[in-house]
User: Which sequence fits this backbone?
């Protein structure tokens, strides 16, 4: 190979690598997931859970998204004993260690995560929170803050305006783009579940960048964290926004 050919090949390889790096940067990489539930739909098939038996149409989670969790990608049960892991998988959340939080964060979490009535915060910390570098106070503080961003958006407005009605994926993606920037809807997956003959929207999992895994995310914009994540398929294409009550 001549020196000219070698230089040409080297240049071509360099350009290809640079292009790949730029593409990766543009697409981002999902490091965390914000899991948000539509609680009325969840409760349709979990009516005996404490948070479902006590739900009313006036309660916050009847017309707002609820916090399921903040999940680091591909990491579970970090530094957790085998006994605690087994108890968690068996759904024996009351036997898991109590999560110590400030009174302010505890109150905010109880509102954002109705599942605390069933020990959901113990499960979330045991399975997911232990795999972050945050304290429990910061971990749940970040989750509550990011959920607040979702509930202050056009996405929540869309759901609240269509309770009892079907909503298509296209409308939800458009609401994400409106509130969190172009392409935000490409970083969201929607889940649905059936209750009788009705397909209901049960929740959203929203891709976030690595920055979601630090205490500073308590003051970060949800849109910035979404834009730094990778794209995903949307999942369910249409579902009913369920109303509170059985």
Assistant:
């Amino acid at each position: 190979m001549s020196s000219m050919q070698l230089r040409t090949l080297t240049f071509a390889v360099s350009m290809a690598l640079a292009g790949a790096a730029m593409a990766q940067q543009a697409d981002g990489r999902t490091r965390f997931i914000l899991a948000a539930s539509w609680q009325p739909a969840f409760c349709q098939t979990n009516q005996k859970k404490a948070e479902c038996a006590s739900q009313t149409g006036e309660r916050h989670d009847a017309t707002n998204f609820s916090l399921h969790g903040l999940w680091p990608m591909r990491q579970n049960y970090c530094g957790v004993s085998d006994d605690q892991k087994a108890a968690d998988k068996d759904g024996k959340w009351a036997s898991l260690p109590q999560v110590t939080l400030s009174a302010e964060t505890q109150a905010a979490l109880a509102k954002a995560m109705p599942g605390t009535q069933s020990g959901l915060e113990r499960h979330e910390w045991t399975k997911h929170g232990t795999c972050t570098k945050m304290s429990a106070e910061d971990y749940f503080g970040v989750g509550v803050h990011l959920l607040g961003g979702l509930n202050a958006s056009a996405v929540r407005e869309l759901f609240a305006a269509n309770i009892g009605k079907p909503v298509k994926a296209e409308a939800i993606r458009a609401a994400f783009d409106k509130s969190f920037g172009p392409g935000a809807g490409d970083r969201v997956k929607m889940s649905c579940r059936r209750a009788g003959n009705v397909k209901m929207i049960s929740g959203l999992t929203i891709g976030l960048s690595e920055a979601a895994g630090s205490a500073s995310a308590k003051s970060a914009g949800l849109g910035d964290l979404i834009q730094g994540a990778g794209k995903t398929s949307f999942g369910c294409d249409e579902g009913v926004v369920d109303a509170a009550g059985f």
Observations:
- The CA atoms of residues 163 and 243 lie 6 Å apart.
- The radius of gyration is 21 Å.
